[in-house]
Each structure stands twice: as structure tokens, then as C-alpha cells.
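Input C-alpha cells:
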């Protein structure tokens, strides 16, 4: 969407009107310009080809109003061409055809709405446009959140695998040290460096405890915000 702050009502909505009926385009322009609650800036084109050229050079288009039938093309081909350009712009079909099958096919292509030309009025069209733009913004916001959640879950999985590897690498040598230390304690007199043995055992137990805490880390209590890991609760 060209304007990232469309929820700010002080920002104009940039509309691309595509119809080879110049008189109808003028009617649509008049309807939108008469709307008092929001400003609409309308660019009119009379063919799919000229519309695609406009889309390619104009990054500010927020929504497209287009007829379905053109002498050399149609609305479906327009949607496919737009998709191939990599532009995601909400589209509303305006047509005289009361064709339910056509409306269903349009929705499958991602068209936001399908309106009949003879049912447009001064309030209905601008309100429909604004409602669609709000819906698109909400949908994109939801997709952005879902993407961040997926990325966070992926990072958690990577960290979990690293933790398992680290714990495994520590456990084997720690187990060997523990066995050797126990044998050592049994082989020597208690009077030989007892303080050193106590100190060593305490420090060994600290390391062993920390490795167990790392192994038992509760990943459900880890939150990810803006790419940074934060503990959302105490780790048992």
C-alpha cells in the first residue's frame, strides 16, 4: 500500500481509476471528491496497459477501482499482471455485469470487492473504500504479527537444540570427573588436603547444578520482543 499511515484521517487516499468509459470515471471522481470526511486523490486511466504503466512508476497508489471488461483485456488479466509485478494493492471491481460466478472468481484472485456501477452513490463508494483499506491494514498487521511469532518460535527451536548439545557435551566429562573424584576420595586419607576436597566438591556441584538448570530450562517462559530474548518469568 502506498501510504503507510492511512489510518490517519488527515492523509489523502490515492485511488487509481481504470475504465475506458471516461464519463463514468468522471462520475466516480465527483463522488469521491464530494465526500467530506476524507480526501481522495484520483488518477484515471482508460486501459489496463496504461494502468500498469502508472502502477510501475507510482508507489503511492492505495487502492484500484477498475472495470472488468476492456477491449483488449479484462479484470482477471489485470490482477494477474499486478501480481507478477509484485505489487500488493487492494482492488475493487466496478462493473455493469450481475454475474455471480464472475464475482466468485474475482474474490479467488484476491479482489477485495465487486460493486455494480448502477448501485453506487455518494456515500456508499467512499465508505466501502475506507472500510476495505481498514480491513487490509488489519490483515497486514495480523500477518506481520504471525510472521514475528513464527520467527520467534524458530529461534526458540534453534536455542533448544543448542542447549541439548551443550548439556550433552558437558554431561559426559562431568560424569567421568565425578567417578574419578569419588574414587580419589576413597583412596586417600581424610587428613590429606580435606579442605581442598571440600572446595572442589562444592564447585563441582555448582557446575553440575547449573547444567541441570540449563537442561531443564522452560522455553514456554521465554518471550521474544523485537528480535531480543527476554525472560518473562522465573526459571525453575
Amino acid at each position: 500500500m502506498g501510504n503507510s499511515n492511512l489510518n490517519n484521517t488527515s492523509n489523502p487516499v490515492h485511488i487509481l481509476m481504470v475504465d475506458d468509459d471516461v464519463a463514468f470515471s468522471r462520475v466516480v471522481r465527483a463522488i469521491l471528491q464530494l465526500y467530506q470526511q476524507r480526501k481522495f486523490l484520483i488518477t484515471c486511466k482508460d486501459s489496463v496497459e496504461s494502468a500498469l504503466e502508472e502502477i510501475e512508476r507510482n508507489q503511492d497508489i492505495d487502492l484500484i477501482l477498475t472495470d472488468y471488461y476492456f477491449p483488449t483485456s479484462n479484470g482477471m488479466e489485470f490482477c494477474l499482471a499486478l501480481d507478477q509485478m509484485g505489487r500488493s494493492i487492494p482492488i475493487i471491481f466496478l462493473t455493469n455485469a450481475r454475474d455471480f460466478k464472475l464475482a466468485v472468481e474475482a474474490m479467488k484472485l484476491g479482489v477485495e470487492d465487486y460493486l455494480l456501477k448502477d448501485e453506487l452513490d455518494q456515500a456508499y463508494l467512499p465508505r466501502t473504500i475506507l472500510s476495505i483499506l481498514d480491513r487490509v491494514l488489519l490483515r497486514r498487521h495480523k500477518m506481520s504479527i504471525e510472521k514475528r511469532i513464527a520467527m520467534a518460535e524458530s529461534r526458540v527451536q534453534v536455542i533448544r537444540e543448542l542447549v541439548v548439545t551443550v548439556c550433552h557435551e558437558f554431561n559426559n566429562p562431568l560424569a567421568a570427573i565425578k567417578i574419578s573424584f569419588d574414587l580419589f576420595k576413597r583412596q586417600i586419607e581424610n587428613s590429606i588436603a580435606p579442605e581442598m576436597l571440600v572446595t572442589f566438591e562444592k564447585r563441582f556441584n555448582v557446575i553440575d547444578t547449573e547444567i541441570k538448570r540449563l537442561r531443564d530450562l522452560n522455553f514456554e517462559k521465554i518471550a521474544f520482543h523485537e528480535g531480543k530474548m527476554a525472560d518473562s518469568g522465573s526459571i525453575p
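The chain has a mean pLDDT of 80. The first strand starts at residue 13 and ends at 18.
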